[in-house]
# Entry
Amino acid sequence: LLAANGTTLTGNINQTGGTVSPGLSPGILNLTGNFTQSVAGTVQLEIGGTTAGTGYDQLNATGTAVADGTFNVVLIGGFTPSIGDTFTLASAAGGGSGNTTLNLPALPADRAWSEISTATALIIQVVAAPTADLVVTKVDSADPVSVGQQFTYTVTIVNQGPNTATSVSLT
# Structure
């Protein structure tokens, strides 16, 4: 476990396992050098407010970052982010790459996480949860239906928006 608060480390970090925790509930870890993370590495990030260092953890590198492991984000202190809140979790002045697994905490039903990362930063933002207004109607071809008589049901589903509906199932 590597945990630091407001600390600047000089040199490169090559995380081949274990956990890097940039803050002590919360804080910032500044690295003068490169950050390299293998698949076995984990970065633990806490969010308890909207200001880096005092409200949420942040990992910054002056060099490059290659993150191939897991970034776990947790909410602390009963904090619930609002729509529009943005968190720059990590930055690398020399650019970032990798296949990071980003695990984000659950939010209230009206909110969702959006990753808006750039070439030099891992940024997440709270957005309004997508909604779809689906209307289901069914019409039969005969009414009443006699015993043994065939009839047809027509089921129509209309999405009245505002967002696209995916993985719709009618049971």
Observations:
- The radius of gyration is 24 Å.
- The chain has a mean pLDDT of 91.
- The chain is about 0% helix and 50% strand.
- The longest strand covers residues 153-162.
